[in-house]
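Q: What would this chain look like folded?
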Amino acid sequence: MDRRGYQQYKQQSVGSMTPGELLLLLYDELVKRATMASISLDREDFPAFEAAVDRCTDIVNYLDETLDHQYPISQDLSRMYEYFTYQLGRIKIGRNKQELERLRPMLTDMRDAFRTAEKNTSSGKGGQV
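A: My prediction, written as structure tokens:
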């Protein structure tokens, strides 16, 4: 398989996504990496666990950095992202499975809320995301 062609396809795909679709892609990756962290911790594969948690932290930081602060909800989201970052740090340092399993549903709920908002917006039922 020609990797350059695949990379070009990926860039075009991402380049043609709406902001809402990109947000959902990030949240899907966040949930996936949190799940990978949990599996890696069960297997005692600590390098993979730490890499997955680091990637989660990177995604959350990116989400926080790209908030549009002209909307009041941005302050609430920023505080939520700060909490996620704090918890991910605790989870990584303590290899804390219990806290990870407490955090994962929160990440999934956020993703699902944004998915619902994106569906409502794209079908003309809501305002801006």
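The chain has a mean pLDDT of 88.
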